[in-house]
Amino acid sequence: MTAQLTPRAPEVAPALGAAGNNKKVVLDVRNLKVYYETPSGAVRAVDDVSFQVYEGEILGLVGESGCGKTTTAMAILRMVQPPGRITGGNILLNEVDLVQLEAEDLRNVRWVDLALIPQGAMNSLNPVMRIHVQIGEAIEAHQGKLPKAEMKTRILDLLKMVGLPSRVYEMYPHELSGGMKQRVCIAMAIALHPSLIIADEPTSALDVVVQRVVGWGCKPRWSTASP
Ligand SMILES: Nc1ncnc2c1ncn2[C@@H]1O[C@H](COP(=O)(O)OP(=O)(O)O)[C@@H](O)[C@H]1O
Ligand SMILES: [Mg+2]
């Protein structure tokens, strides 16, 4: 049995950057299916969804609440929680099928090749840690200790990339506006030069003016952030 009232599937909208050219395909999602097994039947949250993301492109998944946007994002990260399960399809990241990967290999791909800015990320910054400590920890978690001066230069560069002034380096989250906090999260996501960044509703907690700044202001810098 299938749950009723399944909202319409999300629309896939290439928001910026042109597809259909000879650019490299970074992400190729093919016929993806993610179902949640519930006592009243399977919820077909994602049912036969296919799309591609090209290098340098920002792709938006748009749709009403409950149509499967978060589930699609979590599936790409292989982070769907039970009773959810990927029941079909392929997720090729740089031609490697994430659906087939074992836990060990997945760990290497996550955060290095693939980064997530979760919904409400800006509220998850540690309130008692200065911004440079938080960004530094994210980098060190994957690359080990770096010389102090090198780390400082790297963090200041990241802040600049997301359009934040250098004084943010020493600040605490409560000293920043919502839009600034969100940019800190973006800085953490691009810190390891991932091939793909997944952002779940990155602007929905921000006012309309700041939404535009986050969306447009970061685009050219994101594109140049990849090696
Ligand atoms: N843990 C779960 N158990 C059962 N159904 C779920 C679970 N998580 C999400 N769903 C269902 O999957 C569908 C898609 O949810 P979601 O991906 O969160 O949508 P969106 O992010 O577009 O709002 C919804 O119908 C939702 O009720
Ligand atoms: Mg969602």
Task: Identify the notable features of this structure and list them briefly.
alpha+beta, Rossmann fold, 2 domains, 4-stranded antiparallel beta sheet, two-stranded antiparallel ribbon, 6 helices, disordered C terminus, binds adenosine-5'-diphosphate, binds magnesium ion
Beta-strand residue fraction: 25-35%
State the secondary-structure class. Answer: alpha+beta
Distance between the termini: 48 Å
What small molecules does this complex bind?
A: adenosine-5'-diphosphate, magnesium ion
Report the CATH C-level class of the largest domain: Alpha Beta
Q: What is the approximate shape?
A: globular
Number of strands: 8
User: What percent of the residues sit in helical stretches (DSSP H or I)?
Assistant: 25-40%
CATH superfamily (homologous) name of the largest domain: P-loop containing nucleotide triphosphate hydrolases
Low-confidence stretches: 15-19, 220-227
CATH fold name of the largest domain: Rossmann fold
**CATH architecture field of the largest domain:** 3-Layer(aba) Sandwich
Query: Which strands sit side by side, in order, in the main sheet?
Result: 3-2-5-6
Main sheet: strands, sense, barrel? 4 strands, antiparallel
Give a verbal description of the structure.
The structure is a single chain. Helix content is 32%, strand content 26%. The chain has 227 residues and is an alpha+beta fold. It has two domains: 11-110, Rossmann fold (3-Layer(aba) Sandwich), CATH 3.40.50; 121-225, Rossmann fold, CATH 3.40.50. Strand 2 (25-38) and strand 3 form a beta hairpin. The N and C termini lie far apart (48 Å). Adenosine-5'-diphosphate binds at residues 36, 38, 43, 45, 63, 65-71, 83-84. Adenosine-5'-diphosphate binds next to strand 2, strand 3 and helix 1.
